[in-house]
Amino acid sequence: MHRPIEDYALIGDHQTAALVGRDGSVDWLCLPRFDSPACFAALLGDDENGHWRLAPVGAGDCTRRAYRPGSLVLDTEWETDEGSVRVTDFMPQRDRAPDVVRIVEGLSGRVTVRGTLRLRFDYGSVVPWMRRADGHRVAVAGPDSVWLRSEPAVRTWGESFSTHSEFTVEQGERVAFVLTWHPSHEDRPPLVDPHEALRHSLEDWRAWSDRCRYEGPHREAVLRSLLTLKALTFAPTGGIVAAPTSSLPEEIGGVRNWDYRYCWLRDATLTLGALVSAGYLDEAEAWRDWLLRAAAGDPADLQIMYGLAGERRLPEHELPWLSGYHDSRPVRTGNDAVQQLQLDVYGEVVDSLALARRSGLKAQPHAWRLQLALLDFLEDAWRQPDEGLWEVRGPRRHFVHSKVMVWVAVDRTVRALEDDPQLPGDLDRLRKLRDDVHRDVCERGFDAERGTFTQFYGSTELDASLLLIPRVGFLPPDDPRVVGTVDAVREELAHHGFLRRYSSDATVVDGLPGREGAFLVCSFWLADALHMTGRTKEARELFERLVALGNDVGLLAEEYDPVGERQLGNFPQAFSHIGLVGTALTLFGTARDGEAG
What we know:
This protein is of the alpha+beta class.
């Protein structure tokens, strides 16, 4: 049986990440990058698809676990009849090769610990050749090589194509394991001192955490969300992956299973705003620069997502040898949504560039040329139907959110030209375009009888993205059309106190069978909209309930099933954590000493 998604914690080194279960098992790890094939894939199959467990003999789930304050260093502890033991898991910021360090420490008594390392390269499909060398266990298959050592050395043996160990620790004794990956055609990288690596990792994470400017209520939840966003950042390029996992289902046993190990332009403005507002300007600038590189080229070829370094080809494949999380198949890698037309991304890119300028990020000389090129494309393209924000795999439609974000792209460009007349651009033409788009949305996307905007032109369906209309400035929060939309979305998309993305009969919109849970970022948007429309008390109550959905170490997946009381979808999800940070800043951004501002 698979563990609940919320049973996992995240460790990472800013280039990849691993998921560690409450039972001490690493069940997901892709090496050397977020988007590389997994060498531990039990998360989407079973133990035979690869995992690494360290735990007391005969023990099940841990007694307690927690991150060390301000860090991504995880402590997992067990109380047993023989005594207590702690396993400390982390991935040092890499010099050349990725390492996973696991330090076992006796806390009391005398505890026997068992280790099982089952490496399976290429998403659990390739059993490596194992050998001993220089006190290491070495696994090799094709392009991959992994070295395992312990300090002090403990006896290991091979059994059932796995490496096993068993040893005892008393109070104060420590045994450290280091697993290192490198290309199989290269020499082994330099050895890492696990205890020095722990000290440096804690120093680095805490120095980063100390830069957080937010001091309002729920600071720990906000900081944990920011640490998660940092962990999901691919340091060499500044790109931020949507999640470190693939194919965790939006419905248990269903087919809504997607690969999220890529960088989405839709996250751009909200991510940038969260980083800037919390004081992380270096990370914001790196994300902005990644965005500029990814979006460069013919505006007609702008994609909704890219690889970690801006790669454009992300072909979707199915992995039939993996049974899927709780039999949720197919398991997919790559993402065919990369081929979709989503007009909202043009607005998100332009809005990000405008936010970067307002925030004082170092200017990039080609950014304005890119912005004008995007507007030239939109001048005709905005009248086209598209697949919309949610990447539906049904027919293209005139999604209201897409048109609103086109308006945002034009509006931000108009404002920039008004603020700086020295910038090149046809201001009169763009003002007319802005008015045309606004008029079109208000005439064709608003249901006057029900007093609400709709999901797409001519539809009676609603969409949680409509909650962003006041946030982006398309209409003021006190406009009756905004208030009516917020009320309608809140009522019709409600799911046990939270919010779905769109109609519960999702097949009408996205062409896929099954349903999904409450979409967490949409529920954060509802809290923002309630606050903007004068219902701050209700907004704060909703925010409190959303924060409480985080697991025991503060992590959120993409969705939540309020009936089964479990998290759903890829995990941890950047969009959910961006929503948490953004709503906290909206509700309490100027707070000090726990008082709301």
